[in-house]
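Everyone, carefully examine this protein record:
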Amino acid sequence: MMALRREVADVVVEAPLEDVFAFMDWCYNNPEWLTSIKKSWITKLPGPDGMGGSTHYVGEMMGKRLEWDASPAAYEPWRSFVMRAATGEPAKLRMQAEAQFERLGPRRTRVLFAIAYKVPYPLVGWVMDRLMVRKEVREMVAMGSQGLLRAAAEGRIPPLADQLAKRQRDHPGYQPPPSFSASSPSPARP
């Protein structure tokens, strides 16, 4: 049985950790940095713990237009989150997007961005992975990390306060995690 495969990019973003985390965590920003996502929207707001929500995505993978839903599988503000596909082709691949964050300085954030997946069908899946899926996922991760760097360089990652105000305008029932209102999240690790 083939194990879950992860394609990972490790980048340093020239923006504060809080701003980067909130930017990546809000699905409406996905098309700004993750080019394989054309459109995404919340279908169920997450709770204050960041869990329990649902997002609908429209994107492209292996030259095909796809639609799917995903929900948070893990959420730790300022440190990491995982969005796992629940429907569509990405769910058949057990696909999930993962992000981990580390403060390197006041305006420098290390981001580990990964897409994990498992191709179904033991023998055929191995061939599919070798010929198509791995390359496609590797390109999605690379384009996503480059898109994130571009968004920061072009000043398209707003300050946390501006992002929270927009979330309230977009979804009046939105409740941010309590840590989002804290002025200083966990410090950089030595």
